[in-house]
Amino acid sequence: MNTQALHLIYLKGGADLAERSPASTLTERHNAGLEAVAEAQLTFAKFSSINHQRALRWHTDGGLLQWNIAEWTNAAAGEMGEACNAAKKLRRIECGMQQSGGDSGVPTDLVEARRKIAQELGDTATYLDLCATRVGWSLEDCLRLAFNSVSEREGFPERV
Asked: Could you give the angle at which helices 139-154 and 44-58 cross, rounded to 10 degrees?
């Protein structure tokens, strides 16, 4: 959910509260907005659960075991390659370079190009989550392991 949508939830919650209790409207509006935002937030666990459920619609013969680990990592790498290609097209727009108009997938402005990169990064993360599940880890734990290992190796204090 984007920031505008969350803002609308916040405002809608606030508008309803304003009609009920004008004396403490600001505080209640703020609290209602925070609650609405918290409900709308996506956690690793929630995403992974829904992602796995959807994957079973495609992988009906053996679930995630239907593909081996190389197939899951190859799928993630393919999506990352698409993100790289989208980044190349963004760079062309930034540099004012001509792009072929024959490809309907070619973005025409910076907003569209960035959205395409975001889409491909999301696709990559979706496959990474399924791959992590396939090897018996959560994506959250994979990120924690990798991030903290680098921080420790480099002597940085940041940990997740």
From this structure: 130
Q: What share of the chain is helix, strand, coil (3-state, %, to 5)?
A: 80, 0, 20
User: Could you list the residue range(s) of the whole structural domain that residue 31 is in?
Assistant: 1-41
Q: How many domains is the chain built from? A: 2
pLDDT for position 13: 41
Q: Give dist(CA 83, CA 92) in Å, integer.
A: 14
**Same-domain check for residues 73 and 8:** no
131 shares a domain with 52: yes
Mean pLDDT in residue range 71-90: 97
Tell me which residue of 99, 93, 136 sits closest to 113, measured CA to CA: 93
Provide the pLDDT confidence category of residue 46 given band limits of 50, 70 and 90.
Answer: very high
